[in-house]
Amino acid sequence: MIFSEGEPELWPVDRDAEQPLWEQVYDILRERIEAGDFPQGRAIPSINKLLGRVDVAEATLQKALTQLKKEGFLRGRQGRGIFVRPHQEWNPPPPPDGTA
């Protein structure tokens, strides 16, 4: 189940952190995708449902989703939602230190 009853109501973001909010949201969503919380081939929750879990502006959430699409984790389907792509299509950037 994507939103289980035992989860905290909000996904925490640190407004005082140096890391921008959109990157924090990106990290949260990417971790959930990689962990299988959002199954491959299935739609992620709607924007409104995601906004109910993370206390950021819609534009901030959209920026995180756009980055996940660019990296191949997600794809939008007009009128149907945003879907998790198969693992083989993921193209994350290399780690900052250059190790893979």
TrEMBL record:
Record PROSITE patterns: HTH_GNTR (PS50949)
InterPro entries found in the cross-reference section: Bact_HTH_transcr_reg, Tscrpt_reg_HTH_GntR, WH-like_DNA-bd_sf, WH_DNA-bd_sf
This protein's UniProt keywords: DNA-binding, Transcription, Transcription regulation
GO annotation, biological process: negative regulation of DNA-templated transcription
Alphabetical list of Pfam families matching this protein: GntR
Recorded GO MF terms: DNA binding; DNA-binding transcription factor activity
Location of the HTH gntR-type domain: 19-87
Gene3D superfamilies listed in its UniProt record: Winged helix-like DNA-binding domain superfamily/Winged helix DNA-binding domain (1.10.10.10)
CDD domains per record: WHTH_GntR
PANTHER family for the chain: MANNOSYL-D-GLYCERATE TRANSPORT/METABOLISM SYSTEM REPRESSOR MNGR-RELATED (PTHR44846), MANNOSYL-D-GLYCERATE TRANSPORT_METABOLISM SYSTEM REPRESSOR MNGR-RELATED (PTHR44846:SF1)
Protein name from the UniProt record: GntR family transcriptional regulator
Phylogenetic placement of the source organism: Bacteria, Bacillati, Actinomycetota, Actinomycetes, Streptosporangiales
